[in-house]
Amino acid sequence: MSLLLVSLLVIAAAEPEKLELKILRDDREAIVYAPSKPPQAVEELVPLVFCFHGRGANMYDAANTYRMHRQWPQAVVVYMDGLRTPGKYDKEGELTGWQRTAGDQMDRDLLFFDAVLERIKQTHPIDPQRIYVAGHSSGGDFTYLLWAARYDVLAAVAPSATTGDGLVALNPLPCFHIAGENDSLANFKDQLRAMRLVRRINRCDPETTPWAEGVEFYDSEIAPFASLIHSRAHKFAKESPALIVKFFKSNIKPPQP
User: Fold this and answer.
1) How far apart are alpha carbons 197 and 86 in whole angstroms?
2) Is the pLDDT higher at 13 or at 76?
3) Tens digit of pLDDT for each residue in 81-121?
């Protein structure tokens, strides 16, 4: 555990709060938006949402792209900062990103997630049944990895622009996948394959159910699946945040025995 978190400091700011952590040998940062109004009662719990940026971006880009703290002001929203990380089209790791598989980069990003989650739970009244993750591109890859590696703490996920490598090891979990038909970086056909596999893992109904304009929604007795397919390339769809919030709000993790 000493390698996991050497030091953790919360720097007070009006909005947002900034977290600075030491994970392994790296200095890591995240920004946290908390509800502007405190819960009505001490015992009232609030949802927690993590949003992960794409390759070459940072936590501020993620905040400006997702705007999740504006879409869901009642939630605590965390935007974490990635490090330079090798990728499929960035072999030397010149750009920021996230680990794609368990064990990669000494699991530095999984350890970062664990440390931030623990800190947020200490400082905010988080509902353990409403912890969510969303990510675009490299952040979408990491979202699927968190599903596989931290399934026990998540209520739902929303990956974007990712082919979802390693899906075979997943347990059923509500998932909202966003994909661009003209995406040449995360091949659209591979994304369709990933979506079909998730529907099988989640044991979804074969036919769609009306849910929201532009969204294909597959209901399930254990974990629904929804997809937003847009005509753009490797871009985050601007209509996504509101739909992700709608999906997250409708999926709460069952109480653990």
Assistant:
1) 26
2) 76
3) 999 988 777 777 789 999 989 999 999 999 999 999 999 99
Tokens describing residue 218: 């597959």
Q: For the purposes of burial, counting CB atoms within 10 Å of the CB of 168, is it exposed (0-12), middle (13-18) or buried (19 or more)? A: exposed
Contact status, residue 196 vs residue 212, Cβ threshold 8 Å: no
Strand partners, 217: 226
CB count in 10 Å sphere of residue 247: 25
- Please tell me the distance from the alpha carbon of residue 236 to that of residue 4, in angstroms, as a whole number: 32
Helix (H, G, I), strand (E, B) or coil at 160: strand
Q: What was the pLDDT predicted at 254?
A: 85
**The total number of residues written for the chain in this structure:** 257
pLDDT at 32 over 60: yes
CB 82 within 8 A of CB 58: yes
Query: What distances in angstroms separate CA 116 from CA 4, 7, 60, 220, one per listed residue?
Result: 11, 12, 17, 31
Nearest Cα neighbor of 155 from 225, 252, 48 is: 252
pLDDT in tens, 195-218: 999 999 999 999 999 999 999 999
Tell me the C-alpha distance between 142 and 160, whole Å. Answer: 10
Could you tell me which of 110, 114, 134, 111 has the C-alpha nearest to residue 122? 114
Is residue 96 within 8 Å of 82, Cβ to Cβ? yes
Its pTM stands at 0.91
DSSP calls for 211-250? -STTEEEE--SS--EEEEEESSSSS--TTHHHHHHHHHHT
